[in-house]
Every structure is written in C-alpha cells, then in structure tokens.
Fold each of these.
Amino acid sequence: MKEDSRKKGFILVILLVIIAVLSVFVMEYHYSTKIEAKITERYQDRVKARYAAKAGFNTAAALLKHEMDINFTAEDWARDAEPLKLDDASFVFEIKAEDGKININHLTREEYSPEVRRRKAELLLELCDLFDLEYGIVPAIIDWVDEDDEVTVLDYVEKDNTGAEDNYYQKLETPYHAKNGFFDVITEVLLVKGATPEIFFGAPDGENEEKNQGLADFLTVYGDDKININTAPAEVLQCLIPEFIDEDTAHGIIAARELEPFSSVSELKEILGINEAIFKRISPLICVESEKRFFSIKSEGECRDSRETVNAVVEMDIETGGIKRIAYWNQA
Ligand SMILES: [Ca+2]
C-alpha cells in the first residue's frame, strides 16, 4: 500500500513536470506566432504604404498631364493635394516646377558674358543672404562644375569667399575628386565644400519642429538655364532684384501671375515700375515659358505606422503632355 502511494506520487510529479515543460512550449509557440503575425502585419503595412506612395506619384503625373493643356501658374503645381485614402492606406503629394529654380549647372557657361556670369552668381549670393549663409558655397558650386582646377574667388564680393577644387577634397578624411562637370542630381550638392544637410534640407525650426526650407527648394540641376517667372517661388523672385523685390512684392507678383500668367518678361518691368537699365540686369536670366519642363514630385504613402516616400523628377513631353522620362527616382 505504501509502495503504491509512493508510485502514484512519483507519477504525479512526472506529470506536473511534463505539463510545466509543455506549458513553456505552448507559451513559446504562442509568443513566436504572435511575433510572426506582427511582422507579417507590419510587412503588409509597408507594402501598402509603398504602393500608396507610388499611387501618389501616378496621380501627380496624371494631374501634370491634365494641367499641361491649360494656362497654369506655379501655384497650381505647388499647392499640396489633400490626402487621398486607399483602403486603410493614404497618400499625399506635392509638385514643384523645376524651371522656377536657379540652375546650378549653368552658372559659368562659356557663351555667357562676364556680366551674365556675375549676375548668375549674384542670384546665389542673394539666396545665401536670405538664409544667412556664408558666401563660400557659391564659388565652391562654381568650382564643382567648371572644368578647371583653379580655386574661384569672386573678387566683386567684399565678404570672404573661396571655392574648392581637388586640393581641398583630396585632404578630406574620405577623399574624393571635384566633379569638374554637371551635377547629376541635386543631392550631389552635399559633396560640395560648405554644404551641410542643415543648409541643404533646412534646419529644424525650434518651436514647431517643422523644417525651415533649405537651399534644395530653390536650386535645380534640370532643364534650361533661365528662371521661369511664372513658376519661380517668392524667394527666387526676391533674389532677382532684391532692392526692388522684397517678400511682399514677391507675393504680389505671384498673386498677379495667378490671375494672368506673364506672357513676356517685359511685363515684370511694368509691374515693378523699374527702368530699362535695371531690367537689363535680369532680362537675360528669366523667361516666361521653358522649352524643357521638369517637375519634382514628392509622394508620401502611409499605412498605420508605416511610411514610404517617393522623390522623383520627371520631364514632361510638351507635345503629348505625358511623361517623357523619369530623370530621378528615389524611394525610401
Ligand atoms: Ca573645377
């Protein structure tokens, strides 16, 4: 009898051990299944966000094609679209005309007169003034593009300004060469002496954590070398003749072109009431319509906590209104 009780007790202990071990396995299985389900769900969200971002890009491209047929102003393109829902994902996009920005590939073309070259550099210097930046980035951009290895110093500028060629870039911790050729993409500016992500993308603006605009919003490497005054943002308009175009005047110009786009560059002279001599300073730099139409499209797709962004630059075909080519594509 005593033997039987001992046996039963032993079996009970064994059973308890087995149950305990099985419980651990069941819990482990439950936990890993839950993790896998979460991973799958997150992956699905990412895929949905990715396709929502692509849908945003396609919608922007369709809008561009549609708007090509009508008389447009910069504001039609620049205005943010409302977020659009796609099942449990959504997207929002913005379009900017590249031809309203300052083209940094064409600052020192050989066919330009010294005066035009100077005016083009001065546009960038004015931009530096607007954003409180050192002038050195301007000759450094010029040196990055020009074919020679002579370090540029803009002698008509009082403030310190010195460009950079191989002798500077080769001494960096990770050395590289000055391009001595066109910028292929605008982010390449980050390789230029003096350019930092803060200068380029904009620095966080203390209180509201929204980013200030950076140089990237006003510089381009695409299209013609002239600034389209029908699409130029207020800051670029201000850089044209800062003594006549302050912030308010720039917004006045934008309001005027919203009603009726400029049909000739001389209309700007009439609006501003400036004389021929002053107008001559900017007339070689501006246009009212570009032969090559590049637009940047930024589309953000979202699904719960997952986000994907498409940054693209497209060249539109003026004949067909469709996309001629995608000049830049970055998805992250
Ligand atoms: Ca050079």
Amino acid sequence: MTERDQQLTTDVRNYCEKIGVDVVGFADPLLFERYSEENRPHAFLKNSKTVIVIGFHLYDIILDAWSHKEGEGIWTHQFADAVVEQFCHGVRRLLLKKGYNSRVIPYSPGLYLKEAAALAGIGPIGKNNLLITNLFGSQVRLRALVTTAPLICGDPIEESKYCKECNICIETCPAKAFDNGKYSREKCYLYLETHKKNLSDYTVIECNVCIETCPIGK
Ligand code: SF4
Ligand code: SF4
C-alpha cells in the first residue's frame, strides 16, 4: 500500500490556491482499473501514485465558447483550456522541484475527467451527466495530470446528494435528452449541432441549459 504524504499534499493545495486554481482533488490510480487500459493513469505514467484533477470555473458563458483557429477545423475551448493547462504545468513544475515526475494528460486519449473528479472526491456526477461541484455547479473545465507524488486522496463519490428530489435539468433540456431515464448523447449532439449560436467565423456558443439551470453553486 502506498504511504501518502500529508505535507506534500498541503503544499500542492496551497500552491493551487496561490495560482488561482478553482477546484483541485486527488485520486488513487488503482480506482481507474474499471476503465480500459488506454484510459488508466498508468497508460500515461507507469509508476504514478496520484491523479490530480484541476478545474477552472467558467464564470461567464463566453469562457465556454467553442472556437477554432483560422485554417483548422478542430473545435476547442481555447481560452479555458489554455488556462487549465497552465495550472497543470505549474503543479507539474512544483512537483518536479520536489523530486517527482508528472505528466499532464491530453484530452484524447485521456482519462474520463468528470469520473476522475468524482473519484477524487470533488463532487458527484449529476442527473445532467456532468460533474457537480459544491461551489460552481457544473460550470468548470477540467484537466488532469498524473504524478509519482504520493498525495492524500479524496473519498470517491458515487452518488449525487444534490439530485435526489431535483429534476430541473431533465425538465428544461430542450432536446429531451434525458427522457429515457439516462442521458442520450445522440439527442443532445443533434440539438447542439442544429442550434449553435455563431459569434464569429471562428466561435460558437452551444446549448448550456443543463449547466445553467442547475441550482448548485449558484
Ligand atoms: S447540452 Fe442542452 S441539449 Fe444537451 S443535454 Fe444539456 S440541455 Fe440538453
Ligand atoms: S439540476 Fe438538479 S437534478 Fe440536475 S444536476 Fe443539478 S441538482 Fe442534479
């Protein structure tokens, strides 16, 4: 069993606070054995001891806009992704100075980020099929790094305490993507594709209703 380091964990948390990270949590790589090989931490760093999940609060809908560079067809959240990636590299450099290797995980192939956040004890996955954080609801952009640093991990969260009596996101989804009792990616994506709001040739806003209507973190 891995012996975990309280002081190092506190140092990482303090550093995250200092650089403006909005959400951070730590998960045990062994919990990822439920996923396929290519989506496990050890696929990215063989002797990793901790998965660090970092989140950036999307405090304005414009931060959640999808955009692509001129001449490229790949849609990303350029600004939010750049911010959260820099957070991850900051933590990586901090741990390197302390003698631990880390690797920032790409988005694809990568870890299942919202599941990783739930395993790190950050928050549950709600009926809206998204991570729910106590402070910011589902309005966070996530990224993860794996590290050989033995940090103290959070308690995995398997169930949403927020959603029990609530059905707001289900009732307000314009695509009726939850009507069969679980999230339908097909219905959601069809709606997203046909209801994009173009802000410019390079930037669009997509449906955000299941994020905006969630009362948690408001
Ligand atoms: S993004 Fe919009 S269409 Fe998709 S599930 Fe959420 S509310 Fe429904
Ligand atoms: S709107 Fe309600 S049911 Fe939907 S994710 Fe938020 S708390 Fe859960």
